């Protein structure tokens, strides 16, 4: 059994909570005491129906205001897969939360109300999904019951969205007509839409192929921690020196020739160690410890790759940045701390090329700064070289965070473009 | 572990993620510690720590906030496991906090030391100058926890502010703090109760005997089965009786309920959990029942 991480975007109006509630309920991930608590609260508030959003909106402020303000993680499993849902709010003032939820997602579900069609909000969600390079996108056309399960309406929406998506460089795109309220095409195929030949939503989630979404080509091993037992009880480990980390790309095997950055020195992998014994190969997302044949000075923040396939060694970065600070703005000369893989450095913004309107995709080149939830293209200069790939090629070596030195808050998420 | 199509099982993915988190903490903080209670989640967390740094020993001490109201089987296990690993175990005692006048014992038949633990924990973090504290909490446990970050920032008063949490993207964790502040780190955030048990089975991890079915003298209070104990005052109508039970969670004797169960092996426990329709905290924890937001309130104050 493997894991599928998926993000959902939308508001209560789109039926998102109803959809998640149904997936959880039908997979028996909602427990009786949780359901009772939700039913009790719904009753106390005078609601006529059981408000399943109460299951995910766990913070007092959210319940008081009746909105989702943060990413909530939910878990369920079927015999095929374990699922992690990053449930994110859909409104534009929570763009940073959606970006956060999408950053680790294998798949995103964007909900569309069949009556309303493709709205500004749906386009924004789809754009953010592609910006974060979520490999699979599902357009769930919901409330089909309210348009008489009309194939014509579904096709209309599909065409409208497809023409928009072609501009986005959208990944694998799937359209599913559903009624979350009645369960049509959620867990099993609906009898109300015999014209639909595709899978139910859950079937799609269970079977969508994600293993090849990881980069298995470019060997990238950011060194996280050097293991040198100081007081090893076993004399065999007195001279042990291992480089621990999580594989970010490619497949590593003992005997492979590898290159260390920044030194550029080459050596071979002597062994790939784990607590449970050495392994024959390592690939993302495995956490392993490498031993190398030669003694090279290697520390945290360094990168191990292949001599004929290296990341870009860059101090000048071009990136799309989503700004997340409540007050401070990002503009030319803003100084920040940057964390990229296991390396932390200082960065200064050299230029803001444009601010992107996430609803219309219009580029405003006259913009002088980015405020909360705004996205733009920036140039950064970094105090020490980073070992980067285009975010489109590898999310783990192409993504970075920006930290404000005054507050220590995480204030930006960056995706590297045109690495050179 | 390895298959030709490079898929990775759910337990391997969760383990790799938790190991990554632990190494990140060891690399970025000066003085981390790991909360080890002898409960199943902290036992799994300890195994992950063992794996993350092997063949080196775990590079931080273990800490237990001991209310003095714990199950004796669990305390025995805690001490034995720490010793086997050669780990340093720091016991922060709620009794000491009471004796020092830092907190006042609750009175009455529902008296519990659950809430008092927070002061003892925060004092111990401050006294030892810990800047990162590993906890075994999981997001599936409780709805306030569903929103908590893996690296969860605490201010100098140890407080959690759920409304201004740091965004957490990819596998990049922000470890920046000022002196006096600390980060609670939850490497098992994405594990479910069933994942924990699957992992215990796969790894053949030993757990305290009270997780398995045994005969115990219990009485019923508010629909929960509480153990006979010197720390609980029973009403006259709360009669003791023998029952075959086990514990799904392990907290204080005073507020942890047993469940009726004949599950005597890990396999039987997994079958039981897979079929259950009640969450582990809903079934067994009086401390979570106080109000809809009781966990959020305690967490804001600095609770685990």
Automatic annotation (TrEMBL), chain A:
Protein name per Swiss-Prot or TrEMBL: Sulfate adenylyltransferase subunit 1
Membrane spanning stretches: none
Catalytic reaction annotation: sulfate + ATP + H(+) = adenosine 5'-phosphosulfate + diphosphate
NCBIfam families xrefs: CysN (TIGR02034), PRK05124.1 (NF003478), small_GTP (TIGR00231)
Oligomeric and partner information: Heterodimer composed of CysD, the smaller subunit, and CysN.
Tree of life domain: Bacteria
GO BP: any one term: sulfate assimilation
EC number annotated for this UniProt entry: 2.7.7.4
CDD domains: CysN_ATPS (cd04166), CysN_NodQ_II (cd03695), CysN_NoDQ_III (cd04095)
One MF annotation (Gene Ontology) recorded for this entry: sulfate adenylyltransferase (ATP) activity
Family of the protein in this entry: Belongs to the TRAFAC class translation factor GTPase superfamily. Classic translation factor GTPase family. CysN/NodQ subfamily.
PROSITE patterns to which the protein is assigned, alphabetical: G_TR_1, G_TR_2
Pathway note: Sulfur metabolism; hydrogen sulfide biosynthesis; sulfite from sulfate: step 1/3
InterPro entries in UniProt: CysN_GTP-bd (IPR041757), CysN_II (IPR044138), CysN_NoDQ_III (IPR044139), G_TR_CS (IPR031157), GTP-eEF1A_C (IPR054696), P-loop_NTPase (IPR027417), Small_GTP-bd (IPR005225), SO4_adenylTrfase_lsu (IPR011779)
Keywords of the record: ATP-binding, GTP-binding, Nucleotide-binding, Nucleotidyltransferase, Transferase
PANTHER family recorded: TRANSLATION FACTOR
Organism per entry: Streptosporangium subroseum
Binding site for GTP: 10-17, 87-91, 142-145
Annotated function: With CysD forms the ATP sulfurylase (ATPS) that catalyzes the adenylation of sulfate producing adenosine 5'-phosphosulfate (APS) and diphosphate, the first enzymatic step in sulfur assimilation pathway. APS synthesis involves the formation of a high-energy phosphoric-sulfuric acid anhydride bond driven by GTP hydrolysis by CysN coupled to ATP hydrolysis by CysD.
Nucleotidyltransferase in keyword set: yes
Domain Tr-type G, residue spans: 1-214
TrEMBL record, chain B:
UniProt entry tagged with the keyword DNA-binding: no
Known EC number: 2.7.7.4
Presence of the UniProt keyword Nucleotide-binding in the record: yes
Pfam families: PAPS_reduct (PF01507)
Keywords (A to Z) from UniProt: ATP-binding, Nucleotide-binding, Nucleotidyltransferase, Transferase
Phosphoadenosine phosphosulphate reductase domain mapped to chain residues: 32-257
Record GO biological process: sulfate assimilation
Region span, Disordered: 284-304
InterPro entries linked: PAPS_reduct_dom, Rossmann-like_a/b/a_fold, SO4_adenylTrfase_ssu, Sulfate_adenylyltrnsfr_sub2
Origin: domain of life: Bacteria
GO MF annotation list: ATP binding; sulfate adenylyltransferase (ATP) activity
Family, per entry: Belongs to the PAPS reductase family. CysD subfamily.
Subunit structure: Heterodimer composed of CysD, the smaller subunit, and CysNC.
Name used for this protein in its record: Sulfate adenylyltransferase subunit 2
